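**User:**
Everyone, produce one record:

**Assistant:**
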Amino acid sequence: MVRHVAVTDPDFGKSFPCPVCGGGEAVAAIRQQQQQKTAQLLAREGLTESTRHDWLTWGHYSQGYLPAEWWQPRALAIELARMWSQGEHLNYEVFSPEHEFALTNPAPLEFRDTQSLWLFGATGCGKTGLARLAYRTFLAQSGKPGIFIEWQALYEVIKSQYNRSGSDDVSHPLIEAVATIPVLVLDDVGHQRQRNPVSDDEYKKLWLVINRRYTMELKTLVTSNLDRYAMRDLFDSKLARRMVEMAVMCEMGGQSFSEWDQGGDT
């Protein structure tokens, strides 16, 4: 279907699935085919999705389950991830005017709603588990194709292809799949490279993914140990700014879950 909007509206001329049937069996079949082809492409390179966090439920990220000292530093990140998982558009209205981000970063508060989220915080605070839960929830209810992948694992596979072919052309299908899949969780961006310089090639590949998804306004969730300043220092201001423009940013604070053993690693 086509929405009847003004020519100045961003949705003018675009086609959208029927809100009642979601496009029906034809759309469902296309989505399933894309998911299968993407899974096969990643599996050939050993990039299968980890299920180690799939035991987690929203109950594990609830105020009733977590003690107050664990809940409070994570509450906003959990709420944003829940909204992302329900297909809601995100903005900074969930931040109070007194929130540190609102006080120090007024310009991003004017950005329009987005489908993307950038969670940052220290190792072990639960970012990956929360992202995986949000990803599984959204795919289950939407039926859209998606990829959940650790950035460093993806880039290591891309580098290994250079050694086999002598050219970086063969990495294009992988980058294209990650850059254009309707739903993407890019886990641990910059995590393993904090103390090492980032190569021009790694920067180029990450820029291709981020910029493509920014331009196409595709649903994305990024997790990282790095806030926007550390991301700028590791890569550059251009990439960091593009990510800030693309996604709502939120810190997931608190102590490492390894200090509070409840039977699993988040």
Remarks:
- The CA atoms of residues 194 and 234 lie 7 Å apart.
- The two ends are 41 Å apart (CA to CA).
